[in-house]
Amino acid sequence: MEETGNIRLEVNISPDKLEARVTLIVPDEGRGGPILITEQDVRDALRAKNVTHGILDSVISELVGNPAKFANVPVTVACGTPPVPGIDGKIEYPFLTLLHDDKRPKELDDGRVDYYSITNIPNVAKGQLLAAKTPPTPGTPGTAVTGEPIAPKAGREVMIKPGKNVVMNQERTLLYAAIDGQVSFTENDKVNVFPVFEVNGDVDFRVGNIDFVGTVVIRGNVPTGFRIKASGDIRVLGSVEGAELEAGGSIEIRSGIVAQDKGHVVAGCNVKTSYIQNANVTAGNQVLVSQSIMFSQVRAGKQIICNGAKGFIIGGVLQAGEKIAARVIGNASATPTVLEVGVKPELRQELSTITKELQNVYENLRKTDQGLGVLSQLLQVAGELPPEKRTMQIKLTNTRLVLEKEVKKLEARKKEIEQELEGDVPAAVEVYNLMYPGIKLVFGKLVRFIKQEFSRTRFIVLEGEITTSTLI
């Protein structure tokens, strides 16, 4: 702070150190007279606060030339150079282009169309590149007005997650298929290649239940009572009734599900279908429906999206970690419909459990190292250990190896969960056309009953309340 005649120069630096402001503080008794200030006065005041970078000479000249204009008004006289954040790492999946191959159904000789013959199966060959990782960039440092470097936010690291029948290069930046088969994403975005089992028609008693370590393709329908289990994906080109479908990867049902409250459809990744009626559906990631969800129990780790030409949800209970969206929700009869969205409780619970387990393992590791340290001191003093102490040393050494392996496993899983939770977005319910009364919205512990119609509305939680905003 500098005194100059009848005024005082005050310099303030912003918390992020990217801006310095000068205020000419003029006392009441000095406002009637001339304000005398020189460029040197301003520069001395800046120097006293160590402001050396990004000084705006033109602003200082204007300040000195017409000080009365700036009396008691803060003016920016120096701007730092903001850091440039790093670019997040990314993973590209070249095989996904196979999903966009020609999906037109086969035309038979008599002119009819065979919809069950659509061969939209992304097969890959042994040795084919499946994933390529681009590492994150560290970013570019900035410079504070005081000349200090400002560290940038580094880009976020990403990891290729290998599953079954795949191999990685030594740098763990490229992933290749180890066998011929179909690519499938399973839990935590692991990439797998599975062999394919096909049924050329409906599942019936000649086919029976299916339990296959790979991907299953049904080129017909799956009637009530049958069970299909696959470690990869399940693709049904017809419809599914009250059957049991369980896939480690995704489930795609070309027609839809009419289950009559029987059976279930469970996928580790996504469930994609045209409609869901009186069914029980669970997906680790997304449930994607083009037409309707009616009177069903539907759960998704992230999103439930029903946004086709009709895209309506009526009745039942829908639960999603991040978002539920549809064109129309409810009906004019106010049919009770429950929509629940919010954080991923199972992930947060797992993170809490892993943190406690790590604390226990760290403590056991500390005790093991303590024991090994004592034995090492005995060895240095005596030159050798008695048999019982030698046996103890071997046991402790083996215990340490087991504990180290457990620590690596727990820390890796903890990092995965933290990265997934870091990307959490505020939970939302979105209706693109119309929401009718009779809907119960649940955001964690918050509940709101819809008693009027809403159109083109997003529901989110702000300041502890379920609030609305208009969708553009």
From TrEMBL:
<dbReference type="InterPro" id="IPR036145">
    <property type="entry name" value="MinC_C_sf"/>
</dbReference>
<dbReference type="Pfam" id="PF20250">
    <property type="entry name" value="FapA_N"/>
</dbReference>
<keyword id="KW-0175">Coiled coil</keyword>
<feature type="domain" description="Flagellar Assembly Protein A N-terminal region">
    <location>
        <begin position="10"/>
        <end position="188"/>
    </location>
</feature>
<dbReference type="Pfam" id="PF03961">
    <property type="entry name" value="FapA"/>
</dbReference>
<protein>
    <submittedName>
        <fullName>FapA family protein</fullName>
    </submittedName>
</protein>
<dbReference type="InterPro" id="IPR046866">
    <property type="entry name" value="FapA_N"/>
</dbReference>
<dbReference type="GO" id="GO:0000902">
    <property type="term" value="P:cell morphogenesis"/>
</dbReference>
<dbReference type="InterPro" id="IPR046865">
    <property type="entry name" value="FapA_b_solenoid"/>
</dbReference>
<dbReference type="InterPro" id="IPR005646">
    <property type="entry name" value="FapA"/>
</dbReference>
<feature type="coiled-coil region">
    <location>
        <begin position="393"/>
        <end position="420"/>
    </location>
</feature>
